Amino acid sequence: MTTLYCACCGRPFKRTSNRGPAPLYCSRDCRLQIAARRRAWGPVDWGLPAATAQALMAVRQPADRLAKSA
Ligand SMILES: [Zn+2]
Hints:
Layout: E1 3-5, E2 12-14, H1 28-41, H2 50-69
Antiparallel strand pairs: 1-2
């Protein structure tokens, strides 16, 4: 059996079946949580923690304004 790491909470988990693509999440809860985040964030890199993604967006917005006025 292969040990995988959850793309949501980062916990290691065992892959239970070798058929199909490798699962990204340790549980259905984590998969649903990511789906909800993707809906809320749109095209933002949802692999980052929410606080990090929001900080990146906060930095990016003033930079865009500067670029336009320059
Ligand atoms: Zn998880």
